[in-house]
Amino acid sequence: MVLPDFPWTGREKEEERMKTLVVEDDFTSRLLLQEILKDFGTVHIAVNGVEAVEAMSEALRTGQPYDLVCLDIMMPEMDGHEALKKIRELEKEAGVLPNDEVKVVMTTALGDPKNVFEAYYRGGATSYVVKPIHKRELLDRLRALQLVE
């Protein structure tokens, strides 16, 4: 039996839909990202960097990694820069090759050069979106990363 294409992705099986982790301590931003991304697949939520690292560890342990992590920088307990470093360490320990790493889009109100440099060059971010997040801009970034059509 052949399953029909799902209209939101054009993919043949629901299992192939994008799996996303939204890491955001602000309720409104979390809700906005979840609303934008829900039509592309499963969206999990973490409210700080500690939860993000735990979610990533579990996803790697079970062999069900995330395709996308939207990661805020300024959060309590563990900020986004530190969480990203730990996520990349987990991937390395799990034997994930650099080309297969999760795509990480930093989502933050901090658009200054220091934070952009830290996210990309020291942390391993894939992309960067400055708040307020606009649906079109985020989806353009995800298209460029070949995560959505």
The level-1 CATH class: Alpha Beta
Oligomer: single chain
CATH superfamily: Response regulator
Count of DSSP-assigned helices:
5
Mean pLDDT: 86
The backbone outline, from C-alpha atoms, is globular
Structural class, from secondary structure content?
A: alpha/beta
What percentage of residues falls in helices of 4 or more residues? 25-40%
Strand order of the largest sheet: 2-1-3-4-5
Low-confidence stretches: 1-14
Strand and helix order:
EHEHEHEHEH
State the CATH topology. Rossmann fold
The biggest sheet amounts to: 5 strands, parallel
List the helices and strands and how they pair.
Blueprint: E1 18-23, H1 27-37, E2 41-46, H2 49-61, E3 68-72, H3 80-93, E4 103-108, H4 113-122, E5 127-130, H5 135-144
Parallel strand pairs: 1-2, 1-3, 3-4, 4-5
Helix pairs in contact: 2-3
What is shown here, in short?
The chain has helices at residues 27-37, 49-61, 80-93, 113-122, 135-144, and strands at 18-23, 41-46, 68-72, 103-108, 127-130. With 149 residues, it is an alpha/beta fold.
